Amino acid sequence: MRAVQATLDDLGTPLREVxxxxxxxxxxxGSAHECAIxxxxxxxxxxxxxxGEFQTLVNPGSSIPAFIQVLTGxxxxxxxxxxxxxxxxxxxxxxARGSVLVAHNxxxxxxxxxxxxxxxxxxxxxxxxxxxxxxxxxxVGNDEAPNRRLGSLAALFGADTTPDHRALHDARATVxxxxxxxxxxxxxxxxxxxxxxSYNSRVTMAQRRKRFLADDxxxxxxxxxxxxxxxxxxxxxxxxxxRVRARSYFTAAEQRTRMAEMVGIATSIQPIVCQTxxxxxVRELRLIxxxxxxxxxxxxxxxxxxxxxxxxxxxxxxxxxxxxRDDQASGARYAGPFSSRAAxxxxxxxxxxxxxxxxxxxxxxxxxxGSACVLAEMGRCGAPCEGRQTQADYAVHVQxxxxxxxxxxxxxxxxxxxxxxxxxxxERFEDAGSLRDRLGHLVRGAARAQRLAPLAASxxxxxxxxxxxxxxxxxxxxxxxxxGTSLAPRGADPMVYVESLRATAEAVPAPLGPAPAAYAxxxxxxxxxxxxxxxxxxDLDGEWTCPVGGAGAAKATLGELRRGA
Length: 565
Prior knowledge:
- The chain is α+β, with helices and mostly antiparallel strands.
- The protein is 41% helix and 18% strand.
């Protein structure tokens, strides 16, 4: 297991150790862009103890409206000799440095402070902010207070200072309100700044009480598995920090309704520490495919993947199949896998748009037999058995279709593009768009097969990638399946770890067909890692190539067609 030093963000900052600066402003009006600050009051507290206070009037540079003077008691004569904001703001920011800002209706006060900083060209420090109004709306019931105004809350909690629209007095009252609200969230199990920042009353008490499930989890990268009372996996996920990610399921950071339901059922969390991110991603896919957890939505049915097959028959046709066989030597060709039957059917239809391939599953009649083929009568069969084309012509069409599936598909793609242009010239734009979509499914399926096949055929590939810490991530791939992964520490001879990895990696038998020895999604994860910047091929037994004129190149043509639509 790789040791990872925990940080404050991992462990959480206890609220008793947080320095809060509770601030209140008085202004000449409600718009931060049109009005100005007339007074700043702030109280610095930590662990319930007052550490200092900040108070000053501010000369706004303009007359204070009469109704504001009545409301606050601050007159033009009182601020005439007061410092300007260009003097006050730097002093306040120094007073508040390194703290968490707190205000009642914080959006108002923070907006004015940010506007003042912007007008002076002073960078805003990016304080964390706690709004006591937001907390009060979630913690104070309507039966306790008629509203969430500062005066009402100060009276409810018995604040030592009565708010009176003077900045320091209101800040002092807000301190008492803050402490009362923190006491309430503490009773609900919120004890750290990170938990307070994500606190939301929509998170049920039952959900919060289960945070202990994450207490002993490692702060390392890997996979986490929520399980029910019978040990059955409910949800599988992956993270660079298992403990921090698992904790988020017990706070408002998790917004998905089904996850709240899942947490209610869960009784344990199993961590699986992984040495590399790729290993964690692959383990996640395998666990989801194996257990099919009820709360995972993706990758739960990889075995249902569909392929489009050009059959190895006297008169080959396109067929949608679930099984990839070892029949390429007989002439069979495959494209895929496809994400759905609709996508596979669209790919087949694209080929039939320009190539008269046989569509019937059996030859229902022969030429001159006296009974016609039903599909031929419908114009859906171009097999030579009906005399619609010669065997030589049919062979050419089959070769054109096969070329796209395994190599150079430019002829078929060009024919489909020409067909689209013809439809567009006839102002049949909807038909042209539909054909473009079918071509997209065809090209993506063929490109996917062409990317997977070389890795599937390679007995072994070993690659390495340097991490930010200077270590080497090592990966061993056999027939498209992640067979093993390791981490060579910084300064160590990586080849020693490479040989150890090769000796201990999983033995993977060669697949029977062009499909890899793993689910396609796993092999594609491996491919994305291999193609990422900084990866070096250490050794390759086999070939890792894609055809120059293959379906991958056709994606660019398809992209141009979409941009021109």
